[in-house]
Amino acid sequence: MKNIQPVVFPLNLGTATILNCVGSDNFSTSVTIYYQLLSAENQTLQSGNLSLSGADYEAYNSSADGNQYIYEWSATQLGVTIIGDYVPPVPEVVEPINSI
After folding, report:
1. Domain for residue 94, yes or no?
2. What is the predicted pLDDT for the residue at 95?
3. How many domains does the structure of the chain reveal?
4. In what order do the strands lie in the sheet containing 30-38?
5. From CA 23, how far away is CA 52, in angstroms rounded?
6. pLDDT tens column, 65-78
7. pLDDT at 52
8. Is 95 among the domain residues?
């Protein structure tokens, strides 16, 4: 998952700040990419499929990092800007209170 520049959805649906992509490569000519634009609370605000093929598939196949290529290509198709890797929040540890 990647952090993106905030994308505000109309009608108070929310603001997407996370891009998630999962690619399914047919190992021949194309990759089908399932994407999600998520809020900071991991609520899906938009999702769908993209198809990477042709010269883009050749570039993906020859790239040093296929996952990074899929994220960057997907972001371009969706018109969003990646600003970094997503780091999930760490839950606050609550120490137990000793009672006597």
Report:
1. no
2. 83
3. 1
4. 44-53, 30-38, 14-25, 2-9, 82-85
5. 9
6. 999 999 999 999 99
7. 97
8. no
